[in-house]
């Protein structure tokens, strides 16, 4: 075990040439980021989750009810032991052959069985009130942390001159404000990582799980090798668009369609301008070129920049999806709902298709060209 730890914490990987971990130990004169500082984020993540439960119960829920958002869930399917067994043990989306077999067994028509399965699937989905409370929590946190980040960064020299991120690196003292900023962001994303298993189960569960893992990895990585200055810039820039995204969701759930449209347009403009404009020109330019000039490359420098470039690739992909959603929304006259978690409507019944219909559907990847959950949704959790 000691050998594995020594290999993992190899100074030649993590630190620039001629720098050792001993050089970055805390002294009476200065404090530097220490890997063990991050242990604090685990109990704090639990605290954040508990605060969220209290917030949703005593603040978000009353706000939702005041906006006349219904607490009732979808209509429940009538009890049927045979269909319930098929639903829980075999499939939630029976094919044509199974539907015909169930129709003969129960003496029900196929359309009635389809309706039962649709209602049964909807039973497992949360009400609009639950979704509103979840979005209000995220909106409140993002608004707080973004405001804190802006107020903190206004006082720092590296906001105005990114070369300050690398002067005297890695001997840059850790301040209380910077430590708080990092630990709170890390705690929040750890809480999201674990609460994802209890939250609304969305169609992009795996994608968002991977996103949270990547975010936690970047925060941890930049803290351990003291790239915290540029890390604060990355965090603050990304929080800006998330505030508007959650606000658009809340407006959508409250059926304030015009407000939702305006907020989604604002979100799209901020997202694209910040992540396709400011991020590469301001941050990537600093991490790739200014740091090369001032500090020089070393192994963890390559890894950190590879992760940031990968993040830029994701920004490009998500921006393409946002533009696609906006174009479709303009053609329809409004921004549509969040298709990842909304209740299936009666028009979505799975009618038994004819051979011609089957051929057409397969050729277009079903009804949605993006696997059915991003084609018209303004409320996708981009990050």
Q: How would you summarize this macromolecular structure in one to three sentences?
A:
With 383 residues, the protein is mainly alpha-helical. The chain is built from 13 helices and no strands.
Would you write up a description of this structure?
- This protein has 383 residues and is mainly alpha-helical.
- The chain has 13 helices and no strands.
- Helix 7 packs antiparallel against helix 8 (176-195), helix 8 (176-195) packs antiparallel against helix 9 (205-224) and helix 8 (176-195) crosses helix 10 (228-253).
- The chain is elongated.
- The two termini are 36 Å apart.
- Mean pLDDT is 84; it is low at 337-383.
What is the fold's blueprint, element by element?
Blueprint (H helix, E strand, L loop, with lengths): L1 H7 L2 H4 L26 H26 L14 H9 L6 H11 L3 H14 L4 H26 L22 H20 L9 H20 L3 H26 L3 H38 L4 H34 L22 H9 L20
- Given helix and strand content, the structural type is mainly alpha
Amino- and carboxy-terminal Cα gap: 36 Å
Low-pLDDT stretches are 337-383
Beta fraction:
under 5%
Major β-sheet profile: none
Counted by DSSP, the helix tally is: 13
Give the overall form.
Answer: elongated
Helix and strand pattern? HHHHHHHHHHHHH
Radius of gyration, CA atoms, in whole angstroms: 25 Å
Number of strands: 0
Which bin fits the share of residues in helices?
Answer: 55-70%
The overall pLDDT average reads 84
């Amino acid at each position: 075990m000691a050998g594995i730890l020594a290999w993992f914490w190899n100074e030649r990987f993590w630190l620039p040439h001629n720098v050792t971990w001993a050089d970055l130990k805390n002294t009476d004169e200065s404090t530097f980021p220490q890997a063990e500082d991050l242990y604090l984020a685990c109990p704090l993540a639990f605290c954040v989750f508990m605060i969220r439960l209290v917030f949703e119960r005593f603040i978000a829920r009353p706000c939702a009810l005041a906006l006349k958002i219904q607490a009732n869930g979808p209509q429940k399917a009538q009890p049927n032991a045979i269909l319930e067994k098929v639903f829980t043990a075999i499939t939630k989306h029976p094919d044509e052959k199974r539907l015909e077999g169930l129709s003969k067994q129960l003496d029900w028509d196929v359309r009635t069985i389809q309706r039962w399965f649709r209602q049964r699937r909807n039973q497992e989905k949360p009400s609009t009130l639950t979704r509103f409370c979840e979005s209000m929590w995220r909106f409140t946190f993002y608004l707080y942390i973004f405001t804190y980040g802006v107020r903190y960064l206004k006082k720092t020299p590296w906001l105005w001159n990114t070369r300050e991120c690398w002067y005297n690196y890695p001997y840059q003292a850790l301040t209380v404000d910077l430590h708080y900023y990092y630990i709170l962001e890390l705690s929040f994303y750890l809480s999201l990582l674990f609460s994802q298993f209890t939250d609304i189960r969305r169609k992009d569960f795996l994608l968002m799980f991977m996103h949270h893992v990547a975010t936690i990895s970047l925060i941890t990585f930049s803290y351990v090798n003291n790239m915290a200055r540029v890390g604060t810039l990355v965090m603050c820039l990304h929080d800006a668009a998330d505030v508007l995204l959650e606000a658009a969701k809340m407006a959508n759930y409250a059926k304030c369609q015009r407000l939702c449209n305006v907020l989604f347009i604002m979100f799209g403009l901020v997202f694209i301008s910040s992540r396709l404009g400011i991020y590469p020109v301001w941050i990537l330019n600093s991490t790739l070129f200014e740091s090369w000039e001032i500090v020089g490359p070393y192994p963890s420098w390559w890894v950190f920049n590879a992760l940031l470039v990968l993040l830029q690739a994701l920004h490009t992909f998500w921006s393409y999806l946002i533009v696609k959603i906006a174009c479709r929304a303009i053609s329809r006259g409004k921004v549509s709902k969040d298709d990842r978690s909304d209740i299936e409507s009666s028009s979505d019944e799975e009618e038994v298709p004819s051979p011609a219909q089957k051929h057409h559907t397969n050729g277009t990847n079903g009804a949605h060209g993006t696997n059915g959950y991003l084609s018209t949704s303004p409320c996708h959790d981009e990050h």
